[in-house]
Amino acid sequence: IVHFINAKKLTTVPFPFPFAQMVWIMICFFSLVPVPLVCAMYLELHKGVFYTFLCVFVFWSVHYIAVEIEMPFGDDPNDLPLERVNRDFNKSLLSLLQPQAQKVPTIHLETVRRS
Q: 34 to each of 37, 43, 103, how far by Cα in Å?
């Protein structure tokens, strides 16, 4: 039940919208501005473009991973399998209704004192 409540918190506590927008703006800014600076630093166009593309690609990749982690529930292939989790949880609850689960275990004090 604790894990269920923790998973429910992910949907009720939103990621701060201004922070998410600022990260997106900074990545867009970083996608455009460093190209001429890096090209001037390396004095060769193809090296500057390659290194800038590499850095920008990594930043956008991390951004999209964060977006996917922010909303793990849905129909995407990488989302959490909520139907299976719900089915397993219901099976666990049904197992508590079995007669074997209704019996309180007994403790023999003689056995406890010997060990």
A: 5, 14, 70
**Whether this model's pTM surpasses 0.70:** no
Rounded to an integer, what distance in angstroms lies between the CA atom of residue 27 and that of residue 31? 6
Q: pLDDT tens digits for 35-49?
A: 788 778 777 778 778
With tokens 């593309």, the residue in question is 53
**CA trace torsion 57, 63, 64, 67 (10° rounding):** 180
User: Where do runs of H (alpha helix) occur along 43-81?
Assistant: 45-70
- Arithmetic mean of pLDDT over the chain: 79
Alpha-carbon distance 17 to 51, whole Å? 31
